[in-house]
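step=predict obj=Universal stress protein n=153
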Amino acid sequence: MTEQQPTSFERGTDGPKVIVVGVDGSQSSYRAAAYAAGLARRQRALLAIVYVQPVVSAGAALGAPATGTTGEIAEELVAEIRLATERFKDIWDVRWEFHTFHGDPYSGLVTAADELTADAVVVGASESAGHRIVGSVAVRLVKAGRWPVTVVP
């Protein structure tokens, strides 16, 4: 007679239940959101759309004019997402939530994935040339090795 070992929960074994996607208004982030929405629909997972608000710079805190506040950007993103959801609601049934976190994009997405107990993270490929030197958010998320990460071009 063999003794059965107790089974414990292992993230990702039954397919993703929560998929986090980072959206910042760039075209690659919108493509990532579309990909993540399709994945969430097929897996019947919750799509957690995350916008990471950058930390306000010292100049902006002292009253220097800024080109659109991060709060306004978050509101615009939510409005765009709601409009798209309404347009496709009869053919595209996806449960979704919008979350805003503060900080740099990498730290914000890590915090979001941890707090929302993400089973997968989806991000768009970086459109910035500077990331070749510093390292993109996507590469840093992959190197963290804590969730499956999909990078959408």
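step=describe
Residues 18-56+93-152 form a domain with the Rossmann fold fold (CATH 3.40.50.620).
step=end
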